[in-house]
Amino acid sequence: MQSADVELPGYYVRQIADQVGSLGADVPRWLAQSGLSEAQLGEAIVSLSWPAFRQLVLNAQELTREPALGLLVGERLRVNTHGILGYAAMNSATIRQGLELVERYIPLRTALVGMQHEQKGQELRVQFVETVPLGEVQRLVLEAVILAVKNVLDFITMGSCQIRYAAFPFEDAGEAALARDLFKCEVRYQQTWAGFALPLEAIDQPLKMADPAAFQDAAKICQRELEQRTQQESLTARVRRTMLEKQSGFPSLQVIARMFNLSPRTLHRRLLDEGSSYKQILEEVRHMLAVEHLKAGRLTLQEIAYVLGYTDMANFRRAFKRWEGVAPSAYRPA
Q1: H helix runs in the chain, sequence order
Q2: What is d(CA 256, CA 251) in angstroms, rounded to the nearest whole number?
Q3: What phi and psi, each to the nearest 5 degrees, are found at residue 332?
Q4: Span 266-304, pLDDT tens digits
Q5: Over the Cα atoms of the chain, what is R_g?
Q6: Most buried of 66, 97, 220, 325 (most Cβ within 10 A)?
């Protein structure tokens, strides 16, 4: 991610600030370190550059020394904190409809992760995928977002549908017991995905609070807001986000053009008008993901090269040396 803004609803940032304060940290000082003031927490949207947001989270973790900070923030994010999206979810006819709603409109609340679901045997996996390589703030962001969505699910089902287990791709940092209490189920660490599993037989059962008219009205407002935000976003940013959502198997120029209802020539021309190109964006995304994978240390060099679309390891080494000035095997993150 370049210097593009991370936009978060002010209420979300206030919840983080309240949690940081309740753990004894100096909130004004913490905010000032990222160029924020307490007055800005009253704004509808708080915009930060990616480096500033990352530092905000890292400073919060350092000041509080609380490994479960993400869980504690997520517990504060209830259905009424999500505005019109939360209201629409409250009126969903079924769990499936509610999940599909949140999946479609989660970009209105955060651009850091996307959401998708898939059937695995007799369970439905609700998965959360990083649309920006989160690196050192992965734990806090994923724990907060996943628990927040689980809280929405608890509310719309009135507790009648318990998730089977929650899954995280990182190791337990000593908060497993608290996580089990908050999720009210088994929590599995060091998994290949992040999210939670639901019993398949429950997702199409009618919900007691369903109101089809209210749901449609709220969903239309969400759609208008999404369309407005998409129109304001540059084509370069949209292409980059699409690639990051894939994380591997990057769509070709032709495929992305089809996804955006453009001809490849028109897509190419419009990217050039913005001072960019498909090749340049692909290079930036590969560079970003390569660095984050090396920082995480979970994949071998061969695996990193594979997920980034390099069939020849030598080509990956040459590309990385061009980006960072050293071979990937010699890279030492700052």
Answers
A1: 10-22, 27-32, 50-64, 69-76, 83-90, 95-105, 138-157, 176-183, 212-232, 235-246, 253-259, 264-273, 278-296, 301-307, 313-324
A2: 6
A3: -125, 105
A4: 999 999 998 999 999 999 889 988 888 888 777 889 999
A5: 21
A6: 97
